[in-house]
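Sequence and structure are kept together here, with a separate record for every protein. A complete record is shown below as an example:
=====
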Amino acid sequence: MDQSPLRIAQLSPLFEAVPPKLYGGTERVVSWLTEALVHRGHHVVLFASGDSQTSAELVPVVDRAIRLARGGDPIVSHTTMLGMVQQRAHEFDVIHSHLDTFALPAFGPQHPPAVTTMHGRLDLPWLEPAFRVFADRPLVSISYSQRRPVEWARWVACIHHGLPIENYPVGEGRGDYVLFLGRMSPEKRPHAAIALARRAGIRIVLAAKVDEADKRYFEEVVEPMLDAPGVEYVGEADQQQKLRLLGDARALLFPMFWPEPFGLVMIEALACGTPVITTSCGAAPEVVADGHVGFVCDGDEQLQRALGRIDEIDRRACRAWAEERFTSDRAAREYEAVYRTLIAERHRRVRSASA
């Protein structure tokens, strides 16, 4: 297969900068992938917010990321992005969207091949009609668990996320606390994390953002628990604060109860040498080797027992697991293979149509 450099358009959501200033999963993954592709010698054009930082060519669609700017219309902004990409489509060998279903109608046979990575949950009933209508569009899942509700869609690959491992220092877990990191939402269950840690007699630190949709849950359920002994809430952490918290934590406590599409925080913890204690929901069993780099539990009783077994996990094994399976270079190589396959398919179709 041809190994010449590719001209790649990367389409990032506009809610956060690339990489995010604070919390932000998809945009962080886009940053890691973009930088790895540039490092591999490809010409990447990143369509994102203007406050993004990248070694690729940046096309600013909006001046600032929508969430922190607290203004603008996300539908209009993302529609504008798709129009900008269409205008420049002839410049690219492949178009890679991270906008979930939003970009599926935008690119057809007249455009370069376009692939969409689905980053969200896919078990919601209103998503199925879109997958039916655009059944020919190539898709990438971020876990095998994620794609189960629509297994019949055109999945061309499952590519687990990968991070720049060199940017994640290994910590020694000397903070004598377990960490809850991410988002204050019912499905992530920070209230359960607090209760489990308190019953185990272990200090817990929570670093998480509160979305507007979760504000009532936070105020009514979580906030009253934050004054309890051994509970510390530090708010939404930036990248440097996150690395310090992960490295010092004895374990990441991630008691989510929903079909987690991937769980980015789990590989960030493992990269820092920090064991992960989580549930068997969603992609967790694909990310965490039970008993080796953490514990994958069925229910709160098992989570409670796992908190007493943290010291059984070797932090060096956690780091080695991340180095072997969850690097951005590995993810970039797998995406590159997808790109080249789709480009070759398009060339065959064009030749067949002109024969």
Summary: The first helix runs from residue 26 to 39. Residues 145 and 283 are 5 Å apart (CA to CA). The mean pLDDT is 93.
